[in-house]
Amino acid sequence: MIELHPLVGHQDARDALIRARAAGKLPSALLVRGMRGVGKQRLALWLAQLQLCEAPTDEGPCGSCRPCRLALGLEHPDLHWYFPLPRPKGVAGDRLAEALEAARADALAEIREEPLKASLADEMQGLYLGLMQSLRRRAQSRPTMSDVQVFIIADAELLVPQESSPEAANAILKLLEEPPAATRIILTSSEPGRLLPTIRSRAVPLHLAPLSRDDVESFLATRCGVDDTTARWAASLGQGAIGRALGFLPDGDDLGPLESVRRDAFALLEAALSDGRGAAFAAALEQRSSGARRLIDLFAFLEDWLRDLAAVAAGAEDRLISRDARTRLRETVARLSLSPAAVTSAYPALEEARELARGNVNPQLIMTRMLTRIRRSLRAPAASTASA
Ligand SMILES: [Zn+2]
Questions:
Q1: How does residue 384 score in pLDDT terms, banded at 50, 70 and 90?
Q2: What is the pLDDT of residues 46-55, one digit of tens each?
Q3: Phi and psi dihedrals of 322, rounded to 5?
Q4: Helix (H, G, I), strand (E, B) or coil at 327
Q5: How far is the CA of 211 from the centre of ligand 1 (A)?
């Protein structure tokens, strides 16, 4: 049977959970928070295993009893892992819940096949009502083989916005308000601020800090079959999150999905800062005219690039995120005589763009406005010096 890779790091959180379990004080609902890719879902699966294990030790689940092996193979009948899925096309009503369950089974089969596959946030994915209703029904039934059944609801912030209706969130809310005795719920979120306050207030928060770069690097080197240089490079860009670092590793002959977005974001910055206005306009028009949520990854990288520009302008190159771009960043700072203050004055443009993207405004409009504002912030000081 294929097994999940081991949980890396987060020792403080593990110790606290092991003690709570031994004392019979694990909360019925937990909200695991922390940056994307830091291991929230992996920790949730570990905690589920801990609760299902027949012989847990001071260090966690035993790893060898039957429930442990079933949990590690994602085949334990009392471990239910829910995550955002694309909405099935051309299906409605009761058939929708069925189609979503089928899609979830397919997705789980894929994870068993390829547990370390990196992917991007997808604006078409959500925790749809049909899925949450089937979760609720299942929670009302008795556990199959253990004393408890554990439900993991990943990326719980996606309960709300997809359908502009609170029904999926309400289905979970009712469960959190009156959880059946044998039910444990673990929510995970990298954007807990976007959860409904009523949900947030009913789950005990547990924050996961970023991992050390060494932990990420050694995971990549031992588990992903990449050379040491690649492991070090991706670990550095991963900023303490294995799930993020994985996104930089090459996918066959292709760039990793995150590496490709990182490069796109750099190209946008260069377009915003180019001598003529045409490049920024052209870059804006290259965006698809719908699906603004996809832009959020792009904006996150653009923010990293601005931070890196500010670091170079401030002479703090030891703080660089993209160390591999040091030379080009230096050239940009020199060419535009950038000050750290000029760079930071561009952040509000990005913040606004992010909000607009969440509101699903046309990406071309968002992009035009943002690039123009960034250009104004970063190029204005140089232009006025030149004309003086
Ligand atoms: Zn066990």
A1: very low
A2: 999 999 999 9
A3: -95, 80
A4: helix
A5: 26
Residues 152, 131: Cα–Cα separation, whole Å: 13
Q: What pTM was estimated for this model as a whole?
A: 0.86
Fold assignment, 11-209: Rossmann fold (3.40.50)
Mean pLDDT for the chain? 88
Helix axes 278-285 and 363-387, enclosed angle (nearest 10)? 170
Q: How far is the CA of 13 from the centre of ligand 1 (A)?
A: 19
CB 170 within 8 A of CB 105: no
Distance 65 CA to ligand 1 centre (A): 4
Q: Give the Cα separation of 366 and 284 in Å (integer).
A: 8
Residue written as token pair 């089974």: 105
The whole-angstrom separation of Cα 148 and Cα 194 is 29
Cα radius of gyration rounded to whole Å, the chain: 23
Ligand 1 centre and the CA of 153: distance in Å?
A: 22
Q: Ligand 1 is a single-atom ion; what residues have CB below 5 A from it?
A: 53, 61-62, 65, 68
Q: Rounded to whole angstroms, what are the CA distances from 381 to 130, 278, 386?
A: 54, 20, 9
Q: Taking the domains of the chain in order of start, what are their residue ranges?
A: 11-209, 250-387
Run of H or E including 206: strand 204-207
Q: In CATH, what number does 250-387 get?
A: 1.20.272
Q: How many percent of the chain have pLDDT more than 70?
A: 92
Distance 282 CA to ligand 1 centre (A): 57
194 in Cβ contact with 160 (< 8 Å): yes
Q: Which amino acid is at 122?
A: D
Q: How far is the CA of 317 from the centre of ligand 1 (A)?
A: 47
Distances (CA, A) of 377 to 156, 157, 306, 336, 345: 36, 33, 12, 11, 6
In tens, the pLDDT along 31-51 reads 999 999 999 999 999 999 999
11-209 and 250-387 share one fold? no
The torsion angle over the Cα atoms of residues 211, 217, 220 and 222, rounded to 10 degrees, is: -110
Q: Which letter, b or e, does each residue of 52-65 get, where b requires 16 or more Cβ atoms within 10 Å of its Cβ?
A: bbeebeeebbbbeb
The pLDDT score that the predictor gives to residue 386 is 43
Distance from residue 143's CA to the centre of ligand 1 (Å): 17
| Residue of 12, 73, 37 lying closest to 154 (CA atoms) | 37
Helix or strand (DSSP H, E) at 204: strand 204-207
Confirm if 39 and 8 have CB atoms less than 8 A apart: yes
